[in-house]
Amino acid sequence: MANSMPFIISSVGEYGDDAKNRQLVRRHVMLGKNKGKKRPKRGCRFQPDHEPDADHPHLDKVPPKLGTDLSFIDFADTVELSLIGDILKFSRIAKQTFFPLEPCIAFDKKLKFQQSFVPLTHDALYLNAMVFSTQSWFCKGTGREIDKRVSYHLVKSISLLRDRLMDGGQATTSNTTINAVVMLAGQALLMGEAKTAREHVFGLRRLVEMRGGFGRLKGNVKLVMEVVRMDLSLAMFTGTGPVLRETASTGIKLPEVKAEELLQLWLTMHNFTNLINNATSTCHKLPEELMLGTMTSVMYRLLTLKFEELSLNEAMRLGLLAFCSQAFLPWTSVKLPFDVFPDAYSAFLEAVTDARSIPSGMIMWLLTIGVIALYPPAGCRSERMLSLLRNIIVDSGVTSWGDMRKTLKEYLWLDLIFDDAAEDLWKRVIQVHE
């Protein structure tokens, strides 16, 4: 046996345990194991098992996937898939468009998905309002007119909203209903229809009252923020009084404002900007309640204050409102077609620049904030403000963007929002001056 099976019994000993003999053992054991097996050549590619059909060549050009994933989703109403695609496309840029401070604010992403996308599949009012809202923003940004195909969704939204309010069911005061009215109010503002926007905001106040006030919406900070921003936008840019502030059941604590509180409002915003700038540099996020609380406590109070013309107090009030509009309100990428506040702002700046009744550094800050927040880049007022800014920069002896930024940061400043835009202004001013 030992002589006939040396690899099993005597692999150590007379055969030795060196590498050569171990290789011999393995080769002997594997004899016949791979017999008859075919191994594919490395690097070969799959080849079709049939020749192309000469009579039907188009069959070989069928794409691997037909249609889009959207075609497998049941939406709440009949809508062209291209319009649904625009909603999804817009959602990718919505954060930067509506919330420029979003990188520093810890919004609830799960809640956002539930509020923004899920209702598209079960709420026809929300879906039609979203279609019209999205298309309006695209048309405004590109200068196109809103066509009948898009206007149909506005008419459908109003009809569905009217039916829902008449029905008086649980959906009447639902989050999706409130969101839909917010979108309708925003688009009315965007199209310059102040009266319609105000009616929608009064409707929002009524819906919130029916829910029991903002206190019942504490778990949905972003929804409260959207409602408040519509009210503030309407009040600031159309010159009408705030609607929600008149409602005792809003849950927003706003004591009567006195003139001496202006400094406190400035300090509140100063502390807020410090927190945001620190969050920007450290990549941290702050609670969304901080943004909502600062916006409501500062902007509502600023809208009620009145000071002497050309006074430092009035300069602070106007500057704070312009600054807050860029930080909190959803109009950073488009300018609303209302001239009430922009006209008052530019008239004030022209007057104080001529009178030199306030420090030149503050005039520089007011001009910079105003051009960025209030005036379209190619507009006449923007050019006029730039001309005033150029004169102030030259008279102040500022010779570099670093010097200008240092002066601006002595007042209120948000690096995330204003740095790049202000540096572009500096370049435009210097280019013309040279």
UniProtKB/TrEMBL annotation:
According to the record, the residues making up region (Disordered) are: 34-59
Q: Where does the record place Basic residues bias? A: 34-44
Q: Report which superkingdom the organism of origin falls in.
A: Eukaryota
Name of the protein: Uncharacterized protein
Compositional bias (Basic and acidic residues) spans?
47-59
